[in-house]
Specification:
Layout (H helix, E strand, L loop, with lengths): L1 E6 L5 H12 L2 E7 L10 E5 L5 H7 L4 E2 L1 E4 L5 H10 L3 E2 L1 E5 L33 H19 L2 E7 L1 E3 L8 H9 L4 E4 L6 E5 H11 L8 E5 L4 E2 L1 H12 L5 E4 L1 H7 L16 H7 L6 H23 L2
């Protein structure tokens, strides 16, 4: 049985990864996080601690032979260096979850793993301007620290993730308006295309990478082949519900005036190639309509549970 340590792993992509890995039945899974969202899953060892506190890393995590460490919540280089400096036991393989946001703007589409990376923060993104650049700096820390310590490393850069447990207002933007019978506000002139990855496909890719020599020292985008627009999302909602979806097309100026919280930039392509991951891990990306159908089922189940808990 392999010893797998998951850093984070209590919600969204990390949780789905833990659930999918547990189904394999061939790993002792340890999950280290602050314990704010207990998993409560049979066979999963939950370790409570704050990764920002070195002493908690040293005391909460047992000194095992870690076949792999999968890190979902490192956002700055210090998160990587502190973890590897203080982690008890021996690490054979470190998997770092990055993001396609590390790429600089380019006319080379789809964006592949060798495309230019950010050289500084993105001031135009306001409060989120440091995110992509800090992730890129963290990637360089992963490479340097793992090389220095003799640890195999793999980096994954997912595109727009959607699916179970999603806390980000992505597909829920559409689901909320659909279930409340409100027209869905969309850009009236958006030709922008986006790459998505269903969270279960992401988990399966990570599982296939665990201890796989073909993944060592490499970075992989995770992105389905389908290119998705606002119009395609509306079409898919119609397909999976069997209904005509009411929309309110708005100009960008009107969207800005209303403060409509669009989940994706209406004037920018976010197109990435997921072919390296497909070839290396023999992946089959789930069709967008299938993933959205499952996501809507999950969203509706959560809403029903919330109403039941609230009572009459």
């Amino acid at each position: 049985m392999r010893n797998i340590l998951v850093i984070g792993g209590s919600y969204f992509a990390g949780r789905v990864f833990v659930e999918e890995l547990a189904k394999q039945g061939d790993a002792h899974i340890h999950v280290f996080n602050r314990g704010r969202r207990p998993l409560g899953m049979p066979g999963i060892t939950e370790l409570v601690g704050d990764r920002d506190a070195a002493d908690q890393i040293r005391t909460a995590i047992p000194p095992l032979e870690w076949d792999a460490v999968v890190d979902f919540c490192a956002y700055e280089p210090v998160h990587v260096t502190s973890l590897l400096e203080n982690l008890p036991g021996r690490v054979r393989h470190y998997i770092f979850i990055s993001t396609t946001t590390v790429y600089d703007r380019t006319s080379r589409l789809p964006v592949g793993e060798d495309c230019p990376k950010l050289t500084g923060p993105q001031a135009e993104l306001g409060a989120y301007g440091d995110y992509g650049f800090d992730k890129w700096r963290s990637e360089t820390a992963v490479q340097a620290e793992c090389d220095r310590r003799g640890i195999a490393q793999t980096i994954f850069r997912p595109a727009i993730i959607y699916g179970y447990y999603n806390y980000a207002p992505r597909e829920s933007y559409f689901f909320e308006r659909l279930t409340s019978r409100q027209p869905i506000e969309i850009p009236d002139d958006s030709l922008a295309l986006y790459s998505f990855i269903w969270v279960v496909d992401m988990a399966r890719a990570l599982i296939r990478a665990l201890g796989a020599p073909g993944s060592f020292g490499r970075a992989f985008n995770l992105a389905s082949d389908e290119l998705i627009s606002y119009g395609r999302i509306i079409d898919v909602l119609g397909e999976i519900t069997g209904k005509t979806i009411a929309t309110t097309p708005l100009s960008r100026r009107e969207i800005e005036r209303r403060g409509t919280p669009l989940p994706f930039p209406p004037a920018e392509h976010l197109i990435y190639s997921g072919q390296e991951a497909r070839r290396t891990f023999d992946l089959t990306y789930t069709p967008f309509a299938t993933g959205m159908r499952e996501s809507l089922k999950y969203y509706l189940a959560v809403q029903r549970a919330a109403r039941a808990q609230a009572g009459p």
